[in-house]
Amino acid sequence: MEQLFWSKSLFGNKLILTRGQEPVGSIVWDSFFSARAQATINGRRFMLNREFFLSRLEIYDAGTQMLLGSIMINLFNPRSDVVINGKRFELEIKNFWQSRWSWKFNGMEIITYQSNELMSRDKGVVELFSACNEEIEVLLLMGLFVRNQFLLFMMLLIILFLFVII
Q1: Would you give the DSSP letter of residue 53?
Q2: Can you give the residue ranges of every domain in the chain?
Q3: Residues 6+ apart with CB under 8 A from 56
Q4: Which of 17, 65, 87, 96 could form a disulfide with 25 if both were Cys (CB 3.0 to 4.6 A apart)?
Q5: CA triplet 14, 81, 24: central angle to 5 degrees?
């Protein structure tokens, strides 16, 4: 098992992924509310995109512009699927607060995420249970991108709730 750490300022546009103190990747959004982001991990570059209202998330190879994977997110269903290189992976949100989630392959967890904080920073741990393969980097970034989109959606709901009350 390999352990990575991630952190992002709550209202920031950059997420940093580290192995101990060594940076191994990042996701940088155009702005805080942006639907597009640039990502790097282990020297590979990717582009991430989401449709309005979070329904579809996509990841592309930044060099070839080739679509590597897309996932449809349903906020009321804790499971979603993505197919990469002909293999089906399942994203599972493990709790209501979206502070624990994982990727599964053939029913076995291969990546787990846990968020430690929510108020001033969003940070947590990623555990990799699979031998390194080409899908892991794509799944790792998609899992972090999904998390950021859930936080944006939750903040939007809170703002709408406060607007209705006031």
Answers
A1: G
A2: 2-165
A3: 50, 70, 71, 72, 73
A4: 17
A5: 30
Is residue 54's pLDDT more than 60?
A: no
**Domain topology for 2-165:** Porin (2.40.160)
Q: Alpha-carbon distance 50 to 72, whole Å? A: 10
Report pLDDT digits (tens) over 4-47: 999 887 778 899 999 999 999 999 998 877 789 999 998 999 99
d(CA 83, CA 158): 33
Model pTM score = 0.83
Distance CA 109, CA 102 (A): 7
**Contact status, residue 37 vs residue 46, Cβ threshold 8 Å:** no
Q: Which two tokens stand for residue 131?
A: 């031998």
The answer to whether 146 touches 15, Cβ cutoff 8 Å, is: no
